[in-house]
Specification:
heterodimer, A: mainly alpha, ABC transporter involved in vitamin B12 uptake, BtuC, two-stranded antiparallel sheet, 12 helices, about 75% helix, B: alpha/beta, Rossmann fold, 2 domains, 4-stranded antiparallel β-sheet, 10 strands, globular
Chain lengths: ~290, ~230
Amino acid sequence: MDYAAILALQICSAVASLVLISLGLAVIFGMMRVINLAHGEFLMLGGYAAITAYNNGVNLWLAMLIVAPLTVGLFGIVVERLIIRHLYGRLIDTMLATWGLSLAMIGFVTVVFGNTVSGISAPLGSLTIGAYRTGAYEVFLVLVAAVLLVAGWAVLRFTRLGLIARGTMQNAAMAAALGVSPSLVYAVTFGVGAALSGLVGGLLAPLSGVVPTIGAAYIAKAFITVISGGAAILSGTAIASGLLGTINTAMTFAFTPVLGEVALLAAAVILLRILPQGITGRFFQRSL
Amino acid sequence: MLRVTDLASGYQKIPIIMGVSFEVGDGEFVGVLGHNGMGKSTLLKTLVGQLPATAGRIGFAGSDITHAPTHQRARRGLRYVPQGRQIFPGLTVRDNLRMGAAGAGLADDVLDEVLDELPRLKPILGRAGGVLSGGEQQILALARCLCGRPRMVLLDEPTEGIQPSIIEEIIDILLRLKRRSGLTIVLVEQNQDFIRRLADRVLIIQKGRITGEVPPDHLADPALVAEFIGMAVT
């Protein structure tokens, strides 16, 4: 029973981890069709923002939940205004530009912080389940992932901002003819996507530590999850994370972590072979 | 309300509209009639800012809007119902209407006023825009435009692909709007009967130029139609 509980918790944790690292990318790619190859570096920047704030006396929770998303969100808006907005509709060009940006960010952060691991201790202590112990902070991250998904859905479904974002995503020229500024919507959307990445980078910093190249550890999984999820930003990310996270954890428990990663990649390849448009390209097409 | 002077525009380096000048007064209903490919839709796209003007000037309500972005023109009250309707397919009818209000910064209360004018939409408010018939989409596109409380509406071929019974309904709606609210409307069409029944005056467009103006009654006379624009009566 304890084993089943800890396994369930680990599956939830793996699913939440995929949701968290993918959400910012899903918002930017799903709403704007911009492939942000600097997504991993946005996460990295969030981690450094949280650690730097904490080391300078800011409360840990404020550093992770406020400073990190605010810093990366503002940085994202600057990037959108200076680089991305000139490249809308040019998929390859945006990929090249964001790849260049990711290299520049890695170089800059390496110069400032050095090529060493920076870290902070995970708060909340540990949680005992029978004979097993796990970090309570991991449970907190599961809750954060759930809250972000529900809050994102509520904003898109019930608020005027969400309505404008959905309308602009479907037909930007028509939205403009109704009085909506697509340029402003895109800047805000990119900023929100970047802020989500920053928030997650800050939240993951206590678990993984931060190095300038840590983005590379996130970017592949994030892309696999978003592409597997398909067009629906939130439900696609949630379903793909659920599927891939479960396979990853089950195989890790049954065999080894390496085989768990292999199984995750194999599952994504098979999934995209069967459903080239992703899960929500075939199912739940009208979901958000 | 609208003053267009020597307007020119086109796609890349291909000129479509060349030296177009005309005026539309407050509360006027002006038709623009022409064959396919004569520049009717290009003219409207240039007026709303979806295509840049390469020369000339567009004045709207006393301001020069020649180089204003599309959303700013819409916010000033110049609204557009495009050819093909361009309904947001994944949004419900209600949300399509809310987009019309949101773009103008208006509260959703305006939906009730518009739905009272266009009650056909009331039973289908929860349906997705993409699954509606062409006629329902056309009425929705018009309603969405009205939710922004426009000062002027630019209508691009609203009868295209629409069944005759709905065309009659659209005529009734537009006549009602003209009578009650004094809305200023520019309508581009190929359907001569439709334009004849609605417009106060009709501009003829040929090869990207306004070549003449005829009273709507003339469109009932095949000989005059042939003389002015070489079109058969539809």
